[in-house]
């Protein structure tokens, strides 16, 4: 039963990821680009970057928020990435299964798939697997999008920026700030997820809208406030996202910030051995089906 609970959780994550990674290709609507959209274009051509992530998840049923920190690297040209995360603040029912009070997770992005590994999966996944795999291309196709429009597997730091561009959203300058010794301009904007989806290549618009309606009903997500920090070279140095997600009686507030630095080549990524991987894509697709 515990394994099914975690698989179900990943299915919900996949539903949100199916929205979050649809920006590969990021076609514009003509005219001049605002600074945020221009930075999206510039950043994707620098090869790669190292990242530092921080955030929190506040859930209505928990007394304290769950904290998230992480570090890794992404290569925008080969669509590969490696992110190691640490999460804390879990209730005793969860920490009892951990060797410490923190949960370690690792995410590998490779060839359009995401591999998720964690000690918490021990004994919970079929056939003794220690990794879960999600095929983002299949999830994308299931909601009516052209799989060829997925080019980055979610490893592109400018993904949300392209989403902002595709949705027709606008941004405005908030302030000037220094990050890691670099002067940046801080912009703020809002992503309309449905408009951004409809701007993507699609094989079935009716299916796409139906899938989005279900995701919106399950999560309450329709808009994403986004903050973007851009340096004098037009590179994205930081992205922040906030969202409120509701599922039944549960409600959660999520705040995530990702910094990008040390632009250039990054280490190559190898997928885990097939014998150690459980493919959770089917469960994710079930969550998007009419009876899921």
Helix content percent band: 25-40%
**How many structural units, i.e. domains?**
1
- Order of SSEs: HHEEEHEEEHHEEHHEEEEH
Average of per-residue pLDDT values = 73
Question: Which keywords apply here?
Answer:
292 residues; alpha+beta; 36% strand; globular; outer membrane lipoprotein receptor (LolB), chain A
A few lines on this structure:
The protein is an alpha+beta fold and 292 residues long.
Characterise the protein shown here.
- Helix content is 26%, strand content 36%.
- It is of the alpha+beta class.
- It has one domain (2-288): outer membrane lipoprotein receptor (LolB), chain A, CATH 2.50.20.
- Helix 2 packs across helix 5.
- It is globular.
- The protein starts with a helix and ends with a helix.
- The model is unreliable at 1-32 and 146-158 (pLDDT under 50).
SSE diagram, text form:
Blueprint: H1 2-20, H2 35-43, E1 48-59, E2 66-75, E3 80-88, H3 92-95, E4 103-110, E5 113-117, E6 131-135, H4 136-142, H5 159-166, E7 171-179, E8 182-192, H6 193-198, H7 205-219, E9 223-231, E10 236-247, E11 250-261, E12 277-279, H8 281-288
């Amino acid at each position: 039963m515990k394994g099914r609970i975690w698989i179900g959780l990943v299915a919900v994550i996949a539903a949100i990821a199916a929205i979050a990674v649809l920006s590969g290709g990021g076609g514009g609507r003509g005219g001049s680009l605002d600074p945020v959209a221009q930075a999206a274009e510039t950043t994707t051509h620098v090869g790669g970057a190292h990242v530092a992530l921080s955030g929190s998840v506040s859930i209505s049923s928990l007394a304290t928020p769950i904290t998230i920190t992480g570090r890794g690297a992404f290569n925008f040209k080969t669509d590969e990435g490696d992110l190691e995360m640490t999460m804390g603040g879990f209730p005793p029912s969860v920490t009892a299964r951990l060797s410490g009070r923190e949960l370690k997770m690792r995410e590998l992005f490779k060839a359009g798939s995401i591999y998720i590994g964690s000690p918490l999966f021990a004994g919970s996944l079929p056939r003794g697997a220690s990794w879960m795999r999600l095929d983002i291309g299949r999830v994308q196709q299931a909601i009516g999008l052209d799989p060829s429009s997925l080019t980055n597997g979610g490893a592109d730091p400018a993904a949300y920026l392209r989403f902002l561009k595709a949705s027709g959203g606008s941004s405005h300058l908030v302030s000037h700030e220094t990050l890691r010794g670099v002067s940046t301009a801080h912009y703020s904007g809002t992503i309309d997820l449905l408009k951004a989806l409809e701007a993507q290549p699609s094989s079935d618009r009716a299916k796409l809208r139906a899938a989005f309606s279900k995701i919106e009903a399950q999560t309450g997500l329709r808009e994403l406030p986004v903050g973007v920090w851009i340096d004098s070279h037009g590179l994205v140095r930081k992205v922040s996202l906030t969202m409120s997600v509701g599922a039944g009686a549960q409600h959660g507030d999520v705040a995530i910030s990702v910094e990008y630095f040390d632009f250039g080549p990054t280490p190559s990524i190898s997928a885990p051995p097939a014998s150690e991987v459980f493919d959770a894509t089917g469960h994710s697709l079930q969550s998007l089906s009419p009876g899921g």
